[in-house]
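Record type: ASSEMBLY
Status: queued
Input:
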Amino acid sequence: MKCMVYLETLGGKITPPSAEALGAAKQLGETMAVISGLSASSATGDAFGYGATAVAVLNTLQNEEFVAEHFCEAIAPFIRDQKPDLVLFPNSFECRELAGMLSVDLDSPIATDVVRIETRGETILVERPIYEGKAFEKIALGEGIKLVTLRARAFNQPELSAASNGTIFGIDMAAKRMVEVLAKSEAQGGVSLSSAKVVISGGRGITNCKQLAGDETASAKRGLILLEELAETMGGAVAGSRAIVDAGYLPYSHQVGQTGKLVSPDVYIAAGISGSIQHIVGMRSSKLIIAVNKDPEAPIFEVADLGVVADLFEYLPALNEDLKKKLG
Amino acid sequence: MKIIVCVKQVVDSEATIHLAQDTISWGDSPFILNPFDEYAVEAGLKLKDLHNAEVIALGIGKPGETDALRRALAMGADSAMQITVEDPSKMDTLSAARLVSAAIEKIGDVQLVLFGRQSLDSGSGIVAAQTARTLGWPLLGYIGKIDLEGDSIMAERFLEEKKLTIKSHMPAAISVVQSIGEPRYPSFIGIKRAQKAEIQVMPAAELGNYPDGSRLLHDSFALPLKKTTTCEFITGDSSSELAEKTVQKMMERKIL
Ligand SMILES: Cc1cc2nc3c(=O)[nH]c(=O)nc-3n(C[C@H](O)[C@H](O)[C@H](O)COP(=O)(O)OP(=O)(O)OC[C@H]3O[C@@H](n4cnc5c(N)ncnc54)[C@H](O)[C@@H]3O)c2cc1C
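Status: finished
Output:
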């Protein structure tokens, strides 16, 4: 099978979900990588290292931001030329837009958020969650160049080998511009939520600190600091329930759940989160769920592996101290 | 100005899914307007308030399945239209986008088509991009703020790690996220009006694009593996003891 994989880069490095997509493609056959991003060309070595047999670099203009139409205009003819059987993408917002547009140009079967790929003879089957992960559907992809986006952390990241060269192509951008990017503000560093190995998540409980009786804002400030400190110690990302996002304590991009993000880290710590169904659908596939809540009856304990009935304002600092000791 | 808001009817997220003989059912759970689409309706109504726009809710579904459209009407949409298909299960996202595009061309003189960021049931999250591309319109994706001036659109785009201010022009397709603001509740009068409203029907066959069941072929459904472990409660007399035991458990599981 002839595969192609679309890689996103950040600061000249291939993002973890992109590396996972490259690993998945390699299992299926010879793989060409298409690299995008502000300093895409510095990632060619790693693309070969992860197992690509050829690499194409998207020649965007300096500082050119992703716009789906513009990238689609450039990449669609390249895909038509190369005629891969299958193109894999990470499941980022940007890639879903790009893959969606490519499916129109190529009249392709497309499946997003895929968690498993298998082959049956010549047929490619993919499995993807439906009804917010309450069920899975296996689908056979029909005729044409198949487009598939992969859920972050559903596939293993391949080893990075020493191989660092091979054939390099360039893909030129088309001239047409439909959307202009006027300004951008980047999140303050930190680890990307969807690909984080550890997620420290806070709920309305963080607005309820005994010592600050009644002062929600001051409580939330202190609570957020506790989440951030723990995230830093564990190398994780901070997230929250809708309750604290709606109250304005965390940006929407950090909301976990039905109308927020789906995450599946190795460890998910839920602090002061009651465990509504809309929250649980966003985090239940995490490998280890630790819940801390004052209320022993909170539904979050039904999905947790480890439960701690405590006041988070006392427990989280203690946990952070102990971890710092043990992790040196 | 005509604004189309695409809405989908989905089963309520509180519903319990049953699977038997490779058929999914959910008891007698009600159908609701896809919660992501509520934000798109809200975005349309905000523009209506500001620019005197006409807001048309557009759905695809089986004849008679009009709960989501009526909810959009109750919230304040001016009218509702349904593209009817006999077997929606045969419809992949590309068929949906082509049907929506054909309907928009038939309606004529549409300046904006709004979408939620994904559906609750299939969760594909690509129909907005596919529709934009099919129509040849610019896509403004994951938008939390829309400002119109003449033909130009300024919008805020919310991605995972960054926020962008982008500019484009009408006609355009926009997918809307939560930052647009809480969807309004229907008024009593709105609900009454929605119950009686006539929903205009466009059979898919008349739009020249039958749902094409050949690109994606259903193989089978499965339920997620049940979690076999029950919650292990950590006990202790002090926070530090609780913390220490938690770390121990993490180490036993080779998580650290
Ligand atoms: C259409 C729709 C979509 C939704 N989408 C989402 C979504 O994407 N994500 C989401 O999270 N929610 C979503 N919700 C909202 C959801 O239903 C809940 O309202 C929300 O998740 C509750 O957040 P919470 O658990 O933080 O707050 P609460 O339910 O108020 O729980 C707070 C918890 O903190 C505990 N607590 C209080 N003080 C302390 C303390 N000092 N120490 C320890 N524990 C303490 C309490 O015992 C309680 O269990 C959605 C709802 C709807 C209707």
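Annotation: The radius of gyration of chain A is 22 Å.
Annotation: Chain A touches chain B through 97 residues (CB under 8 Å).
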